[in-house]
Structure formats: C-alpha cells, structure tokens
Amino acid sequence: MNEQFVRTELIYGEKAMRRLFNSRVAVFGIGGVGGHTAEALVRSGIGSIDIIDDDKVCLSNINRQIIAVHSNLGKYKVDAMEERLLDINPNVTVRKHKTFFTAQNSCEFDFSLYDYVIDAIDTVSGKIELIIKARSSNTPIISSMGAGNKKNPSMFEVADIYKTSVCPLARVMRTELKKRGVKHLKVVYSKEQPSIPKKDMTAASDTLPNDRTGSGNFVKKAPGSNAFVPSVVGLIIAGEVINYLTGDDC
C-alpha cells in the first residue's frame, strides 16, 4: 500500500488504485473549475494527466483559481499547474498543452488515448468540439456548465444535459447538441438563477470576448465569481471521474 494514497485506498481498494494509476485523463481548461479538478485527480492517484490551456495567471484569478498566487503571476497556467501537481505526486505523468482548444486545432489531440475527458472551457464552440471528438472515440466526457455569477455551491448537481433547467449555458448547449444528434452528455450545472454583476467589467484585462461565452446575446460581460463555487464544481467533476474509473460509478 502506497502510504501517500493509503486513505484513498481504504475506500476504493488496491485494485481500484492500480486502475487510477494506469489511467490517463485530459482536463481542458485550467481555471477555477479545471484547476481544482486536476489537483483532486492527482491527489486521488491518477497516474497520467493532460492539462490544456493557453492563458496566464493574472491578478483577478486569485479570488478563485487554485494555482493563482502572487508568485505565479504572469506564468502560463499549465506551467504553474504542472509544478503544483508534481509537488503533490512526483510520480504522476503531466503532459501540458499551451493552447486554446478549438475546432481548428482539435486534430492535434488523440482522444482515444484518454480514459476520461473533462470539459472546463468557456466557449460553446469549443465545448461542442470536445464532446463530438470524445463521442467519436467512445471516450467518456463530463462538461461543466455555467459557474459564473453563482453564489450557492449547494445547488450544483450532476445530470444529463437534456434534464437540465435554468442554466443559460446548458440551454444553449442543449440546442446545439440536439442539432448534431448528440443524445446524452453528463454535466454539472446549477438551478440557481445567475446573479447580475454589480459592476461592468467589460474593459477588464481578463474579460472574455463574446464568442467565448456563447452566441447571440447569451453573455456579453465578464461573469462574477468567488472562491467557493468553481472549486465545488471542480471537485464534483473529479469525484465523478474517480468513481467511474474505479468502477464505483453510481
């Protein structure tokens, strides 16, 4: 029994821990959600992880992102995440990709190599491409819906995309996936009505362009966030992945 993972092994057993060590998971988006997901996966014993993001750590990330500290300002998020993950488990294999995932560069990724894919990116077009690519290779995927402008972490739940309600991003995704014949998608979403930002941040340095949050008039301003909502979403996703890979999926 590996002492580092002894408490996890007590829950899942030795055979399951071997499965985790032999699993390769891809986390697309190393922000408030994806960063917490990646860390929880490695703390749970995942042996190989791909982290994909083209962004750098900035000051406004500090309120919610696990790698966002003053000493990491200006670093690529995947560099900061790799350093942190290897400090947690020096034996984990980390493959980092400094790229913003799009339909145009999706051919650079072989989804058949992954045992699970986590969608923690914020563009509708990118999310759809991830889902289509995972589906074509029969790779399980879980997708994070809108965590911005939410205050109540207890209202997040796991569901099929077609059983979601309230969430504006989930509504857009349902429409787009239906057009493409995608019949099922596991997501984490909230029924909480989004808060209205109290300040216009459209001129902020880390503001998301309109096409990063959807199409039409879905969201046109940078969403508000906090320390406890994205982290909860990330941990819920990590739990779903670990339970699936260990055969303990409910």
Task: Give the key terms.
alpha/beta, globular, 250 residues, 7 strands, seven-stranded mixed beta sheet, Rossmann fold
Describe this entry's structure for a reader.
The chain is α/β, with parallel strands linked by helices and 250 residues long. It has one domain (3-245): NAD(P)-binding Rossmann-like Domain (Rossmann fold, 3-Layer(aba) Sandwich). It has seven helices and seven strands; from the N terminus they run ααβαβαββαββαβα. It has helices at residues 6-12, 14-21, 32-43, 77-88, 124-136, 168-179, 229-245, and strands at residues 24-28, 48-52, 93-97, 116-119, 141-144, 156-160, 186-190. The chain has a seven-stranded mixed β-sheet with strand order 3-2-1-4-5-7-6, sandwiched between helices. α1 packs across α2 (14-21) and α3 (32-43) crosses α7.
Describe the biggest sheet? 7 strands, mixed
CATH architecture designation: 3-Layer(aba) Sandwich
**What string gives the helices and strands in order?**
HHEHEHEEHEEHEH
Give the domain tally: 1
Envelope shape = globular
Low-confidence stretches: 203-220
Fraction of residues in helix: 25-40%
In a nutshell, what does this entry contain?
Helices cover 32% and strands 13% of the residues. The chain has helices at 6-12, 14-21, 32-43, 77-88, 124-136, 168-179, 229-245, and strands at 24-28, 48-52, 93-97, 116-119, 141-144, 156-160, 186-190. A seven-stranded mixed β-sheet has the order 3-2-1-4-5-7-6, sandwiched between helices.
Topology:
Elements: H1 6-12, H2 14-21, E1 24-28, H3 32-43, E2 48-52, H4 77-88, E3 93-97, E4 116-119, H5 124-136, E5 141-144, E6 156-160, H6 168-179, E7 186-190, H7 229-245
Parallel strand pairs: 1-2, 1-4, 2-3, 4-5, 5-7
Antiparallel strand pairs: 6-7
